[in-house]
Write a structure and sequence with these properties.
heterodimer; A: alpha/beta; Methyltransferase, Methionine Synthase (B12-binding Domains), Chain A, domain 1; Rossmann fold; 2 domains; 5-stranded parallel sheet; 9 helices
Amino acid sequence: MNLFEEISENLQKGNARGVKDLVQQAIDERRPAKEILDEGLLSGMSIIGEKFKNNEIFVPEVLVAARAMNMGAALLKPLLKEAGVKACGKACIGTVKGDLHDIGKNLVKMMMEGKGFEVIDLGTDVAPETFVETAAKENCQIICLSALLTTTMSGMEDVVKAAEAAGIRDKVKIMVGGAPLTDAFCRKIGADAYAPDAASAADKAVEFCSA
Amino acid sequence: MNHRERVHAVLHYRPYDRMPLVSFGYWPETLTKWAAQGHIEAEDAEGYRRDGDNAPADRRVMRKLGFDFNWCSTVGGNSYLMPPFKEETLETKPDGSRIIRNAEGLIEKVNDAIVSIPAMVGTSLTGREAWEELYLPRLTFSPDRVDAETFRALAAESGQRLLPLGLQVGSLYGNIRNILGVEELSYLAVDDEVLYREIIDTIGNLCYQVAEAVLAFGVAFDYAHYWEDICFKNGPLINPAVFRELVAPHYARIGKLLLCHGIDITSVDCDGCVDLLVPVWLESGVNTMFPIEVGTWNASVAPWRKCYGKELRGVGGMDKRVFAQDRSAVDAEIERLKPLVDLGGYIPCPDHRIPPDAEFGVTAYYCEAFRKAFG
């Protein structure tokens, strides 16, 4: 097993310390940061995403894998910046106004970071204008909206309208997800994509940014 | 037949005169709205907020709507942190939200102006030291976890009761999730597996001891009931293999105890897509799924029955979202429920507490249509 495969394996097992040590070893061996990221960390997270989508692993395994990835990514961050490596896309994410429940949102963020995205986490109970202002200011290609409740999901339409009013609707894709959401609801409010699970959300984001 | 007899008959596949019309309560905000609209008394909305399921206020609201009784008619001992943590505000944010330490020691973000499940921020259970100092003493069995007076009185009236009564056993894993939060619980399983297992065993043993102490009073319970809430729309928040290995033995042990006391119906309250946990529960003596949240994943007793046979029962599975729609949506829902009722061993019930977008008139119409359809 080569070093990158070892990083990927340890990440999938959630061995955060192991990932950190192996990434440090790769850095010490002067491996390019982009290669360590792509072939070690993101490769591992990609496998995690697929397994999660197929119910081969579950939320706990995703959480510990993402934590391991973050440990490794923290070491790479300054090196990636120095090398001028850009994220594969930029998104902002949050739960909509009136909704505090954020596990789903956090999982999507982890999965998107696992695909190489830069994700700005706006947190919970986020006002429509905050999503829109952040997307405009930070040049996000995607706004990700999460809602747990039927009573709060209507807030997603407010974000779509706010993006239209701010004149950025054609510059940004709006993705929606959460327990009560359906594809039909997504189409009804004029959002661009509904993702049934966190891994699919990350896949969809990649699709948007590679189009 | 009375409702108690009806429940036994349906869940044991015996003949019954009519299907009981079962409720699962409301969000307090729903009753506040209905009171403001003049459908119910304001004191009943307040009474439900204060006293909860099956208390006099709930019974008055059920009577107005047409429900027979609330499935959460359960009593039990205290299998939780005793004493609970003192709830305290740790920080108030400019937007009015607060970071609090709740009664279970969980650090969470709440906003009094918002009706929402809080966001988990952290836990007071930061490791073995905290476990042994702050939690273990609060999770040790003592006789005062069981209110002897209540259970003596219930035992005395057991033969005369017309409504079913459940033994509330507590929660074997959801309770731990409430103490640690989903993220910290997941990390603990990897970072300190010994402690992770010890917490599961401690709570499992406590639930057993409390149930044992309650059952000693001789109350004729009609069913036993757990709550878990450890699933989301795509499946469980725990790996089913881990659940089977570590948690199921506690269900099985408690299940044997319940059977010794003549309780052969045990339900578990778990929202979300529970498909992957159903076989584990069934194997370990939990045979009645509740509330069968239909959701976007279309949960139903039918496919489970096909897989697991008549041992699998259900209470719930009525899509509460129709209460926010109209009478035609109710009619369609009743039609959907008819073949499920025909399967036997199944009692329809709203698949969660009725939320604030529900219309009083539509909810009352459901009760009316239900009676027409199911007697």
